[in-house]
Amino acid sequence: MEKKSIIYDLRKKKGLSQEALAEKVFVTRQAVSRWETGETVPNTETLKLLSKELDVSINTLLGSRRELICQCCGMPLEDSNTSRETDGFFNEEYCKWCYADGEYTLDIWKRYAEIGGKEKLEEFKNQLIHEFNTLLNIEGLPKVENLNVLPGEFINMEYTLPNGEKVKFLDDKQAYLGSQLESEFGGRCFGIAANMDFLLVCTYEENGENPELVIYKKR
Predict the structure, then answer these.
(1) What structural domains and CATH numbers belong to the chain?
(2) Dist. CA 63–CA 58, nearest whole Å
(3) Residues 118, 125, 73, 120, Cα dihedral to 10°
(4) What is the largest CA-CA distance in the chain?
């Protein structure tokens, strides 16, 4: 979309007339018309209201001037994964898995935000990487170089124990630090995950098929 047509296209997509949009963001129909022809641009407070009503980030309204990344996990931000505050406004600092409804979702980040924020979280990531590389001694597991924030619902695999019982070790509603690595022996992938309390390593086939728990170690 051309910058001057962004609001027009988004308004049409929502099925709103210029009058209806103007009423929702407390301006005149003429103001909306001038935005859509490129004569003027909305002020900061109006951009926030437009963002909420049109269901896109301010970054999108401005023509994606900035490349946004989550300040917690480093994930590139798009409208579909950008977090929101309790009032429905976008928070363009974080992804929806790290921050939602006015709160940090990742327990690790909650704790470290209180004592030093992102810098302390990076220190903790490095500590976990060191533990994965030095404490477990798992054959075929490559050296861990980085950990990303991963939603529990995406990595919470079900494992079959020797007694036949099927169990999951993670919480779908939490987020974890982890990564996927190809086995040095080929064939299967390693999945690793951790938080303040444990280290977990598993293996699985393509698309997460046939997962097997390798180790679940309390920290």
Answers:
(1) 3-103 (1.10.260.40), 116-218 (no CATH)
(2) 9
(3) -10
(4) 71
Between 87 and 200, name the one with better pLDDT: 200
C-alpha to C-alpha distances, 7 to 17, 89, 124, 144, 191, nearest whole angstrom: 12, 17, 42, 45, 43
- What does the alpha-carbon distance between residue 206 and residue 200 come to, in Å, rounded to a whole number? 19
Instruction: Record the tokens describing residue 201, joined without a space.
Output: 């390593």
Q: Report the C-alpha gap between 122 and 116 in whole angstroms.
A: 10
Q: From the CA atom positions of the chain, what is the Rg in Å?
A: 22
DSSP 111: H
> So what's the pLDDT on residue 116?
62
Sign of the CA dihedral 163, 169, 173, 179?
negative
Nearest to 217 by CA among 197, 192, 198, 196: 198
pTM for the predicted model, two decimal places: 0.56
| Residue 179 token pair | 């990564």
